[in-house]
């Protein structure tokens, strides 16, 4: 059997089972890929040999990841968040790198290796932290905004760091290599900004006119690989070219389509990259230097966290916000592995340093969900300021609900919440809407709408919104854990209050019903029913028969609605 085919089959088989297990345990896929690498690598089962071809293919995972970051790079967004991104984020990366450099110096590591190690340790996990903050609806909280700003700066800092690490090992001397690299980078960025955007926009307009998805995808892959090849030919990195390619396409109207098309390539190739990272981990060496693994883990979680706590406090955040921000950034990140591998490949770090560092970084990422969750509970004990802020926020909610009764509480004021609010206003039914996006709340208040900042999965917020006087509650966001928590709070206070809940599909319908929802409206089901109704009408099926079929399809899921239909029919007949 062909050796390459055997390796691919082994990796795919292991990935299928390991990723499925990780998803069942609600762990990031990254953990599964690293575990596969450790198991099949040359230091364990030996099924994955160390070869240049495998490493080169894995490098394309990082290329597509950087391309995706380039797609998300938005100059207006960066300008709006510039103080926190460049101020807080820049200080965090610089302080972590310098602190690591100082510790490495006392450990006998050359300054070039210490700086490369500091750059790797400065990175945090965008994938893990972003997912956890989104699940807890904390992206727009004070700590969430600071955390995402720092993560955004780290993503941007990867580009110069990927240039810096090879330059530190340059034969022409670090100063000369760095100067050349940054001059070339600046020239390429100017070329992209001045000439590239219009050219790529014109070219993709031309491609799209051919109405061929195959041709569209070929052009995306061509631009990515061509720019990566060009930057490597110029003495820079593959990933810088991919980042520039993403930036070019982000300026066109096709960025979202490109991102959707490129995601399968990115995820699979990035998975292969992390398998090769795991394969480098020699558990025997790690066990022999277990005290260094513990030191790296403590440095990332406690040391990096403490450093971030000080930086955030000096930036003006109160103690609870600073504590939570520090906990959310106290782990290693995906790009930390990239930088560490790059430094090892250029001989800046010895295997005795790389192995404990890899192990400590991996353990810090595994500990991240627990650390972040504990920080949510501990932050309230650090200072009474948070209670003052909560009191002020609750007073704001209560002032908006003071003079209304028999009203509706709309939880979430996105498009669905705004649509519900319009119907309520049309029927002159008073309502108060709660949302955690400050910009959306500000826009709604400017338009004279009764919307306030508040998290509906907190008991005191619901009470301030007039839960005891409310006529109905509508939950318009499809986040199942948060919705379940909100339902539990409502049922504990008002067992008989009608609660209508939006769901993305009907997979959680029974779970939400058991949690106390009066009605659950699955968007996919309703969309498919309306699609079927329109189709039947277009082929001349009588309207009465269409309505009957749609009502029957809803079944027992909308029993209360069907009873009202029948009552209305009797009234019309009477």
CATH hierarchy: architecture of the largest domain: Up-down Bundle
The residue fraction in helices comes out at: over 70%
The side-by-side strand order for the widest beta sheet comes to: 3-2-1-4-5-6
Rg: 27 Å
> Describe the biggest sheet?
6 strands, parallel
What is the end-to-end distance? Answer: 80 Å
Helix count equals: 26
Walkthrough of the structure:
This protein is mainly alpha-helical. The chain is 73% helix and 4% strand. It is built from 26 helices and 6 strands. Helix 8 packs parallel to helix 16 (334-345), helix 9 packs parallel to helix 11 and helix 24 packs antiparallel against helix 25 (543-554). The model is unreliable at 383-388 (pLDDT under 50).
Pick out its properties.
globular, mainly alpha, 574 residues, Na+/H+ antiporter like fold, 73% helix, single chain, Rossmann fold, 3 domains
Describe the structure concisely.
This protein has 26 helices and six strands. By secondary structure, it is mainly alpha-helical.
List the helices and strands and how they pair.
Layout: H1 3-24, H2 29-40, H3 52-72, H4 75-80, H5 82-106, H6 111-122, H7 126-135, H8 142-168, H9 174-208, H10 213-233, H11 238-250, H12 255-279, H13 283-288, H14 290-314, H15 319-328, H16 334-345, H17 351-378, H18 385-401, E1 408-411, H19 415-426, E2 431-435, H20 438-446, E3 451-453, H21 459-464, E4 472-475, H22 480-493, E5 499-503, H23 509-515, E6 519-522, H24 523-538, H25 543-554, H26 559-573
Parallel strand pairs: 1-2, 1-4, 2-3, 4-5, 5-6
Helix pairs in contact: 1-2, 2-12, 3-11, 3-12, 5-6, 5-8, 5-14, 6-8, 6-16, 8-9, 8-15, 8-16, 9-11, 10-11, 14-15, 14-17, 15-17, 16-17, 24-25
């Amino acid at each position: 059997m062909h050796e390459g085919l055997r390796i691919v089959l082994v990796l795919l088989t292991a990935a299928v089972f390991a990723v499925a297990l990780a998803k069942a345990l609600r762990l990031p896929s990254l953990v599964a890929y690293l575990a596969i690498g450790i198991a099949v690598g040359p230091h364990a089962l030996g099924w994955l040999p160390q070869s240049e071809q495998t490493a080169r293919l894995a490098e394309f995972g990082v290329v597509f990841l950087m391309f995706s970051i380039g797609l998300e790079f938005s100059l207006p967004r960066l300008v709006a968040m510039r103080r926190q991104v460049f101020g807080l984020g820049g200080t965090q990366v610089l302080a972590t790198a310098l602190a690591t450099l100082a510790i490495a110096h006392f450990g006998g590591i050359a300054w070039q290796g210490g700086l490369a190690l500091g750059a790797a340790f400065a990175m945090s996990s965008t994938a893990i932290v972003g997912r956890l903050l989104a699940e807890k609806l904390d992206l727009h909280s004070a700590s969430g905004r600071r955390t995402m700003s720092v993560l955004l700066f780290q993503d941007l800092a990867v580009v110069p760091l990927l240039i810096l690490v090879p330059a530190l090992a340059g034969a022409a001397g670090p100063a000369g290599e760095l100067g050349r690299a940054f001059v070339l980078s600046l020239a390429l960025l100017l070329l992209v900004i001045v000439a590239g955007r219009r050219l790529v926009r014109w070219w993709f307009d031309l491609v799209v006119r051919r109405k061929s998805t195959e041709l569209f995808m070929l052009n995306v892959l061509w631009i990515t690989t061509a720019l990566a090849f060009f930057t490597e030919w110029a003495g820079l990195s593959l990933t810088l070219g991919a980042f520039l390619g993403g930036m070019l396409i982000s300026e066109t109207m096709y960025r979202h389509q490109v991102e959707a098309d490129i995601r399968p390539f990115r995820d699979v190739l990035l998975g292969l990259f992390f398998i090769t990272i795991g394969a480098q981990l020699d558990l025997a060496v790690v066990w022999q230097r277990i005290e260094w693994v513990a030191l790296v883990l403590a440095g990332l979680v406690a040391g990096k966290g403490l450093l971030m706590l000080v930086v955030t406090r000096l930036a003006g955040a109160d103690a609870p916000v600073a504590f939570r921000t520090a906990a959310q950034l106290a782990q290693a990140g995906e790009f930390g592995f990239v930088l560490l591998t790059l430094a090892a490949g250029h001989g800046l770090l010895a295997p005795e340093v790389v192995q404990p560092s890899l192990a400590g970084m991996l353990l810090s990422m595994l500990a991240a969900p627990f650390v972040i969750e504990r920080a949510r509970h501990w932050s309230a004990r650090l200072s009474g300021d948070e209670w003052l802020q909560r009191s002020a926020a609750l007073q704001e909610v209560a002032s908006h609900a003071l003079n209304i009764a028999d009203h509706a509480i709309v939880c979430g004021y996105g498009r669905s919440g705004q649509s519900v609010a319009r119907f309520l206003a049309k029927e002159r039914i008073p309502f108060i809407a709660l949302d955690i996006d400050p910009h959306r709340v500000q826009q709604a208040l400017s338009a004279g709408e009764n919307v306030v900042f508040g998290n509906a999965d907190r008991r005191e917020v619901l009470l301030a919104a007039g839960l005891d006087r409310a006529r109905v509650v509508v939950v318009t966001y499809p986040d199942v854990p948060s919705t379940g928590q909100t339902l539990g709070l409502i049922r504990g206070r008002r067992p008989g209050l009608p609660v209508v809940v939006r769901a993305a599909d009907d997979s959680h319908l029974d779970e939400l019903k058991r949690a106390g929802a009066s009605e659950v409206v699955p968007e996919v089901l309703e969309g498919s029913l309306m699609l079927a109704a329109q189709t039947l009408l277009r082929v001349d099926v009588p309207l009465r028969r269409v309505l009957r079929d749609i009502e029957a399809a809803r079944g027992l899921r909308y029993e209360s609605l069907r009873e009202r239909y029948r009552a209305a029919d009797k009234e019309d007949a009477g």
